[in-house]
């Protein structure tokens, strides 16, 4: 057995060799560097180039155009308002309550699975 074979881990579904992995990593690093080096040389960070472009309009306040998570789920939350109202009343923020709920539901499921019902 050669030293290269001693580094190879074989299994019924394939093989693993760290030197082969390093060779591929080096090849992909070289390819990545070639792509990076051919990039646009006119790019200048911290200039007007990095400002957001919204249909040619200047953006004065970024907070005005920022989409918040609440905006994304507004329709979903509005449609299920009754459901979430019940959940919000149950939500105490106390971890002990959640553990109690977890244990209670787990006990019910265990009771059902063991043939109690």
Automatic annotation (TrEMBL):
It comes from the Archaea. The chain crosses the membrane at residues 15-36, 98-116. The keyword Membrane applies. Keywords: Membrane, Transmembrane, Transmembrane helix. This is Hydrogenase.
């Amino acid at each position: 057995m050669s030293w290269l074979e001693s580094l190879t881990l074989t299994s019924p579904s394939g093989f693993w060799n760290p030197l082969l992995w390093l060779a591929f990593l080096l090849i992909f690093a070289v390819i990545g560097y070639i792509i990076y080096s051919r990039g646009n040389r006119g790019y200048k960070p911290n200039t007007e180039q990095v400002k957001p472009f919204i249909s040619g309009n200047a953006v004065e306040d970024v907070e005005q155009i920022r989409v918040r998570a609440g905006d994304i789920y507004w329709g979903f939350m509005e449609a299920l308002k009754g459901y979430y109202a019940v959940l919000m009343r149950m939500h105490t923020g106390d971890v002990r309550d959640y553990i109690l709920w977890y244990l209670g539901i787990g006990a019910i499921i265990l009771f059902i699975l063991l043939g109690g019902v």
